[in-house]
Every structure is written in C-alpha cells, then in structure tokens.
Amino acid sequence: MSEAREELARWAAGRDGIVRAEKEPGESEPEPEMPELEPAEHPELIAKLREINHRSRSDGRLK
After folding, report:
1. Where is the composition biased (Basic and acidic residues) (predicted)?
2. Whole domain around residue 11: which residue ranges?
3. Among 25, 32, 45, 48, whose Cα sits 20 to 30 Å from the Cα of 11?
C-alpha cells in the first residue's frame, strides 16, 4: 500500500473512530477498494486527498 493510501486510511480510521487489530509481521493486507466519490458528498475526504497529493508532489514522491 502506498504511503498516501496508508496516511489516508489512518486519517479516515481516526475520523470515524475505527479501531483495527494490529497485523502480524509478514501478514499482508488486501488492497482496499476505492469507491467512486462525489466531491459534494465528501468535502473533508476530498480536501484530505488534495492535501496528501500536494504534499506528495512537493517532496517528489509523485510526478
């Protein structure tokens, strides 16, 4: 999972109060499905995605 997706997952989990069990070393986690979102329905999520995208581009992780 990319760093941006991990950060987004941590942010979303904290925002929704989701507690996840720690995975064992070497245990893989399936890629989560990314649903289609309407910006008007999820303004906080869209803002967070833009922030992560901008930061990733600024430090050279994305081109």
Report:
1. 17-26
2. 7-15+37-63
3. 25
